[in-house]
Amino acid sequence: MGEGTKYAIFGDIHANLEAFEAVLECAASLGVTAYACVGDIVGYNACPGACVDRLMGLKCISVQGNHDYYSSHGDSLKDLHPLAAGVVEWTRQVLTPVQVDYLQKLRQKRLVDGFTLVHSTLDAPEKWGYVFDELQAEAHFAYQTSAVCFHGHTHVPAVFLKNQERTLRLPPERISASLGQKLFVNVGSVGQPRDSDPRACFVTYEPDTKTVDFHRVVYDVARTQQRILEAGLPERLALRLALGK
Ligand code: ZN
Question: Which of 159, 162, 21, 137 is nearest to 8 (CA)?
C-alpha cells in the first residue's frame, strides 16, 4: 500500500449487517482507503452470508475467528458456549459453499503493510485465548514482531502497550506507537459490543504515523433484533444488543 493509506480495521462483525453497513458508511466519511478484519465475521446474529459477501466485495484482508472456523469446519462444538454453538449450527446451514470456502481458507494471523492481524493472540492463535489484562498481553507480546498488532475476540475495545519497563492496559483512545513501544490494539466489536455501549466499534489506522483512532457508530439495533427473531435464533441474542453486553 502506498503513502497516505488509511485503514478501517474492525472485527467481531458477527453477522450483524446493519452494524457493518453503518461502520462502512462512517469509514467512508473518514476517508478510509483500505480495510482489514480481525475475524468473527459470522455467528450470533442473522446475516452471516450477507456479511461475508460484503467483506469479500471490499477486498478486505481478514484473519479467521473462532466462529468463522467452527462455521466452516465439521468439528465438534463442545468447546463453545451453548448459545454460540446453536448459532454456529444454524450458520453452517445457511452459508453457501463459496462463503464456507472463504471462511475455511482464512489464515489465523497475517502481517499486512507493517502491522499484524490476529483474532485472539499471537502466542497460540488456534487456542482462542482471551486478552483482558496485562499478564495475558505479556504472553502475546513475546510473539509480536511488528510495532502494532490488532485483535478482537473479547468484544471490549482496549489498548495494551509494551515498552522496555512494563506492559500497560490503556483505555480505547487515540494513540500512536512511538519508538521502542509495541501496541496490541483490541478494535472492539462491530456486531455485538460487550462494554455496555451498544454502538458498533471500529478503529482507523494510519501506517505512516502508526496512529490508531477509535470510533463508535449508532446503527438500527431494532432491525437487527427483528432479523434475529425472524430467523428463529434465541431472543437473548437480540436483547443483549440493546445493552451492549
Ligand atoms: Zn466474537
Answer: 21
Domains, the chain, with CATH or none: 7-243 (3.60.21.10)
Distance between Cα 161 and ligand 1 center (Å):
22
Which amino acid appears at position 109 of this protein?
A: K
Mean local confidence (pLDDT), 112-129 = 96
* 148/60 Cα distance (integer angstroms): 18
Distance 2 CA to ligand 1 centre (A): 31
The pLDDT tens digits for 227-244 are 999 999 999 999 999 999
What's the CA-to-centroid distance between 153 and ligand 1, angstroms? 5
From the CA of 165, how far away is ligand 1's center (Å)? Answer: 31
SS3 string, the chain, reads CCCCCCEEEECCCCCCHHHHHHHHHHHHHCCCCEEEECCCCCCCCCCHHHHHHHHHHCCCEECCCHHHHHHCCCCCCCCCCHHHHHHHHHHHHHCCHHHHHHHHHCCCEEEECCEEEECCCCCCHHHCCCCCCHHHHHHHHCCCCCCEEEECCCCCCEEEEECCCCEEEECCCCEECCCCCEEEEECCCCCCCCCCCCCEEEEEEECCCCEEEEEEECCCHHHHHHHHHHCCCCHHHHHHHHHCC
pTM above 0.85, yes or no: yes
